Amino acid sequence: MTKVKIIETRILSDNWYTLKKITFDYRRNDGTTERQSREAYDRGNGATILLYNQEKNTVILTRQFRMPTFVNGNPDGLLIEACAGLLDTDQPEECIRRETEEETGYRIEQVEKVFEAYMSPGSVTEILHFFIAAYTPKMKVAVGGGVAEEQEHIEVLELDFGHALGLIKTGEIKDAKTIMLLQHIQIAGVLKSR
Ligand SMILES: Nc1nc2c(ncn2[C@@H]2O[C@H](COP(=O)(O)OP(=O)(O)O[C@H]3O[C@H](CO)[C@@H](O)[C@H](O)[C@@H]3O)[C@@H](O)[C@H]2O)c(=O)[nH]1
Ligand SMILES: [Mg+2]
After folding, report:
1. pTM of whole model > 0.90?
2. Residue 118's closest CA among 72, 180, 194, 61?
3. Which fold has domain 46-187?
4. For residue 172, what are the contacts with CB-CB under 8 A and spacing of at least 6?
5. Does residue 42 line the site of ligand 1, with CB under 6 A?
6. Domain spans of the chain?
7. Is the shortest distance between the CB of 101 and ligand 1 below 6 Å?
């Protein structure tokens, strides 16, 4: 028998995305039931990818302005990130191919799914699908930079892998999905750390 019974779902904000307040009864292991309320921000699910080149021992990352980080201590609001996007109605692999071309300008071939993760499970509903893919200079078909109509101004960075790992240590890379993917590439031995 399910331990959760939703009593009420109230929309607190329905602007760009949706913020809901959910009141529910939760049955504890001792059999007693407790009423709780939790807010959940639903901005859909997403996909992210780390592009790597084994000959050059490099990765492709992006840099863009992220307002939520600016209001929480990031002095210029710029964040170095693995390419990522929201699924909308796409399947994760379809989404990440499209986002890779829009944001980085690379048209990739094989992609490998590595894991899925809830990124902020106490407050955000989102599950993120993680991918890696090899890239070569020949796959660069456009400048990238994001979709102009969506006011995306994304800088594309090609970094030595050891240098990118060093940026985690110095705090210049502070984005969870990016750290997870760089460490995955290191643990799996896809690229050399020095
Ligand atoms: N007008 C408006 N635009 C918004 C708002 N919030 C986001 N956008 C715009 O919506 C677009 C979403 O771009 P995507 O590339 O699809 O998503 P993303 O923001 O890069 O999100 C990815 O990274 C996130 C952070 O790690 C992930 O949480 C997410 O799953 C995804 O992978 C961007 O142009 C962004 O500026 C808003 O409140 N108002
Ligand atoms: Mg994006």
Report:
1. yes
2. 180
3. Nucleoside Triphosphate Pyrophosphohydrolase (3.90.79)
4. 80
5. no
6. 4-42, 46-187
7. no
